[in-house]
Amino acid sequence: MSSAAVDIGDHNQLARSVSNSLNLSTSPTATFHSLSSSHGARNAAAAAKQLKPFATQDIKVLLLENVNQTGRKILEEQGYQVEFLKSSLPEDQLIKKIREVHVIGIRSKTKLTARVLQEAKNLIVIGCFCIGTNQVDLQYAADRGITVFNSPFSNSRSVAELVIAEIISLARQLGDRSNEMHQGIWNKVSAGCWEVRDKTLGIIGYGHIGNQLSVLAEGMGMVVIYYDVVNLMSMGKARQKATLAELLDAADFVTCHVPELPETLNMIGKEQFQQMKQGSYLINASRGSVVDIPELINAMRSGKLAGAALDVYPNEPGGNGDYFHNNLNEWAEDLRSLKNIILTPHVGGSTEEAQSAIGVEVSSALCRFVNEGNTTGAVNMPEVSVRSLTIEEPNHVRIIFIHRNIPGVLRRVNAILENHNIDKQTTDSRGEIAYLMADISNVNDNEIRDIVQDLEMLPACIRTRALY
Ligand SMILES: NC(=O)C1=CN([C@@H]2O[C@H](COP(=O)(O)OP(=O)(O)OC[C@H]3O[C@@H](n4cnc5c(N)ncnc54)[C@H](O)[C@@H]3O)[C@@H](O)[C@H]2O)C=CC1
Ligand SMILES: O=C(O)CCC(=O)C(=O)O
Questions:
Q1: Is residue 229 lining ligand 1, measured as CB closer than 6 Å?
Q2: Which residue minimizes the CA distance to atom 4 of ligand 2?
Q3: Which of 316, 404, 420, 430 is an active site residue?
């Protein structure tokens, strides 16, 4: 934020500028619906230590992609202005809306690229109501002082259970039998249908989902092997393979659970299909970019693969409807024509349990960030937490200073703060970005304004907020 925006003669303007367009009020009568007291996330003693009141009703939130109502409710209980939409938005509409808001909540479809984020002049925080954060340009967001949160494991179990269902369904060709019956065809066959007991499951990416899956699969009598770039502790009797090729060579079922990264782009392609066992199965519920789908179609047509299940695709529509055609992905019709292939519309994490938990987790993190500056759990910022300012601390301000992590900045910050009483101060860095919080007591509005203006003059400044 440019210091030129600060009108030093106007208190309201000061409030706007210091809080980065969050028009925070010092009015002691303003109602603050404390996060802790409103949904019991903390114990009663902590709830009594309410954050200082400020005008939460000025905070604008845009929730896209039908984020769960639990999340919406928490944000509304804070008094924020919440706009809720069921689908994602095309880029032009997204740009128009994002200019207005301080907080945005998305799932996997909304692409928050640098092009979109550069228009988001008021945005301070993004909530990804999902695990994956590949849809957000995390580095660009950090460079602009925009903090990003996600929900790292609230839907992991749901994905793992879907994959278990798919393993059995593929082994027994359940999708085909069910489709035939829906067409009136009785086709009782056992050829090419198998039990999963004693078969080998190869898990690529042994993280939260991979772990859950490992335990469930062993419970069904499967042998579990996995491949991961990190050396990891095995669950149960699972064994890590040193290379992807070793896993592909040994597995009857191969399932992908890696994030979308440059290294995972088409990580299952022509060569990997050749390395897989004859008559094996492939499952992908990670990201559409991980599997080369035209090569998958070839492997299915040649009989190398006996079946496949896909939950994710390179291009996915923004909302529900009749979209899965070649104009979305050029091979869609070919994929649809294959036998024993289960196609689901990115529903791995779509259960009541998972969505409700994600709503609570991400919205709570957003509230803590907006109201307290707390970044615990952020995926692109240093994690910094300081206990809340309370209503017993009326002349205190919390300064939040996001800055470039270069030598000498703290010395200059301390020079600005040196004549004030700093009750607490903490700072941490993550790569090129550093995040500092300082609670200062016995300050008046003019002093707050001066502190903020001085901080914003520092060349390393990315963003300054003042909560008071
Ligand atoms: N279909 C759906 O609805 C959902 C899909 N997902 C996707 O699943 C992915 C995995 O989720 P989690 O298990 O929670 O993630 P996680 O971060 O817990 O685990 C990912 C694992 O992949 C490993 N990995 C990274 N790069 C690799 C590589 N090149 N080769 C082998 N291993 C590699 C990591 O070391 C890590 O152990 C997410 O990133 C997301 O894209 C997540 C939730 C729901
Ligand atoms: O539920 C969603 O929209 C996305 C699920 C997902 O892929 C994730 O959590 O990464």
A1: yes
A2: 108
A3: 316
Residue whose structure tokens are 């849809």: 135
Within this chain, do residues 411 and 273 fall inside the same structural domain, yes or no?
Answer: no
- The verdict on the CB of residue 22 being under 6 Å from ligand 1 is no
CA of 286 to the centre of ligand 1 (A): 6
ipTM: 0.99
Q: What is the CA radius of gyration of the chain?
A: 26
Residues 424 and 374 in one domain: no
- E strand or H helix that includes residue 409: helix 409-417
Residue 4 lies in a domain: no
Distance CA 296, CA 291 (A): 8
312 lines ligand 1 (CB under 6 A): yes
Q: What's the CATH number where 228 sits?
A: 3.40.50.720
Amino acid (one-letter) located at 217 = A
Best probe residue, ligand 2, of 109, 131, 153, 162 (max atoms within 8 Å of C-beta): 131
Residue position matching structure tokens 């991979």: 210
Residues 200 and 292 reside in one and the same domain: yes
Residues 169 and 275 in one domain: yes
270 in the same domain as 165: yes
Q: How far is the CA of 465 from the centre of ligand 2 (A)?
A: 31
Pocket test for ligand 2, best of 346, 355, 361 (most atoms within 8 A of CB): 346
* 36, two tokens: 């802790």
* Confidence (pTM): 0.90
Sheet with 397-404, side-by-side order of all strands:
421-430, 433-441, 397-404, 461-467
Taking only the tens place, the pLDDT of each residue in 324-338 is 999 999 999 999 999
- Give the position, in ligand 1's atom list, of the atom nearest the Cα of 227: 31
Q: Report which protein residue has its CA nearest ligand 1's atom 8.
A: 286
Angle at 81 (CA atoms; ends 78, 83), nearest 5 degrees: 120
| Spatial contact of 310 and 341, defined as CB atoms under 8 Å apart | yes
What is the extent of the structural domain holding 401? 382-467
pLDDT digits (tens, 9 = 90+) for 149-185: 999 999 999 999 999 999 999 999 999 999 999 999 9
Is the domain of 312 the same as that of 357?
Answer: no
Q: How far apart are CA 194 and CA 185, in angstroms?
A: 21
Ligand 1 and 162: CB distance under 6 A: no
Regarding whether 264 and 299 lie in a shared domain, the answer is yes
In this structure, the answer to whether residues 146 and 160 fall within a common structural domain is no
Number of domains in the chain: 3
Rounded-to-10 torsion of CA 359, 363, 364, 370: 180
What's the CA gap between 437 and 377, in Å, rounded? 16
